[in-house]
Amino acid sequence: MNSLALLKSNKLSQTSSRIDILEVFLESDTGLTEKEIDERIDSKYDRATVYRTLKIFREKGIIHPIIAENEMTRYVLKKDPVEHIHFKCELCGNVFCLTEVNISGIKLPKGFIKKEANFLISGMCPGCN
Amino acid sequence: MNSLALLKSNKLSQTSSRIDILEVFLESDTGLTEKEIDERIDSKYDRATVYRTLKIFREKGIIHPIIAENEMTRYVLKKDPVEHIHFKCELCGNVFCLTEVNISGIKLPKGFIKKEANFLISGMCPGCN
DNA sequence: CATGTTTTTGCGACTTTGTTGCAAAAATAG
DNA sequence: CTATTTTTGCAACAAAGTCGCAAAAACATG
Ligand SMILES: [Mn+2]
Ligand SMILES: [Mn+2]
Ligand SMILES: [Zn+2]
Ligand SMILES: [Zn+2]
């Protein structure tokens, strides 16, 4: 996928910060924090700009967040819109989208209405194992 | 359950802050943030003390955390040691431990080793619905 | 229950994450 | 190219959480 086209299809203006940050995501297979993005772009842009970019990418559904304990929010490219579990390796720090794990069997008790779900399992990944 | 006995069985010294904070948990059926605990004890203790108390309660397994997006960590009494889903109502803010929902069907792909899981579903609870 | 030892607390200073208003700069539309 | 709209950098701020240290409280022991 190409960053310029991705911005265009989401009706976002093509500023160099958005292009660069999107390319960081396209080149990474790991969930990234603002800090890690900042490093990869060599602090070329202001922190506020990176945060604002993350926010708008999220609103457009280009990236999605991974919430873990005692950690800043990480973001990954949203490749698959299907709801899925995330796995975070405690050794290498990698975050995996486990789209192959079926979670459709989870049924809520009567009266509970689901809007969003956030499933995170942490442990050791195949690479570190 | 009585707070003094709970502290004793966990080999924690019986200080008034620990007793008071534990009683706040025993009287609440909702997940609580440090701030909310602070309000309920009328800021009787220093913020650092509350944080240190939460940390040690957690290490002892008396409480457990609920991690949600854009929110501070909430804690609830750990009534049931069985792994379960949490449900957070976006209207009333209540957090429910859905121990009746079976999540044993979730199997990780080969090579992934689970250590901890954090499942949070947000939406509307039966009371608000 | 007196006393010495250990643990916990309050205070303050600090770090980190994230947000916001505003003027300057860049992007876009015509 | 020019006018309009959007985005950026800067700086100041807020809120969550941590830490060292001296004072205070809890605990163990006789
Ligand atoms: Mn994912
Ligand atoms: Mn629970
Ligand atoms: Zn790994
Ligand atoms: Zn509710």
CATH domain class of the largest domain in chain A: Mainly Alpha
β content of chain A, as a range? Answer: 15-25%
SSE string of chain A, helix = H, strand = E? HHHHEEEEE
Q: Please identify, by name, the CATH architecture of the largest domain in chain A.
A: Orthogonal Bundle
What name does CATH use for the topology of the largest domain in chain A?
A: Arc Repressor Mutant, subunit A
Largest sheet of chain A: 3 strands, mixed
Quaternary state of this entry equals homodimer
Shape of chain A: globular
Helix content bin of chain A = 25-40%
Alpha carbon gap, first and last residue of chain A: 31 Å
- Rg result of chain A: 16 Å
Describe the overall structure.
2 copies of one chain form a homodimer. Chain A has 129 residues and is of the alpha+beta class. Chain A has 2 domains: 3-77, Winged helix-like DNA-binding domain superfamily/Winged helix DNA-binding domain (Arc Repressor Mutant, subunit A, Orthogonal Bundle), CATH 1.10.10.10; 84-123, no CATH class. In chain A, 30% of the residues lie in helices and 22% in strands. Chain A contains 4 helices and 5 strands; from the N terminus they run H-H-H-H-E-E-E-E-E. Chain A has helices at residues 3-9, 16-27, 34-40, 47-59; strands at 63-66, 74-77, 85-89, 95-98, 113-124. In chain A, strands 4-3-5 form a 3-stranded mixed sheet, with no helix packed on it. In chain A, strands 1-2 form a two-stranded antiparallel sheet. The longest helix of chain A has 13 residues, at 47-59. The two termini of chain A are 31 Å apart. The mean pLDDT of chain A is 93. Chain A binds chain B through residues 65, 67-69, 73, 85, 87, 90, 96, 98, 100-103, 105-126, 129, and chain B through 65, 67-69, 73, 85, 87, 90, 96, 98, 100-103, 105-126, 129. Chain A binds a DNA duplex (30 and 30 nucleotides) through helix 2 and helix 4.
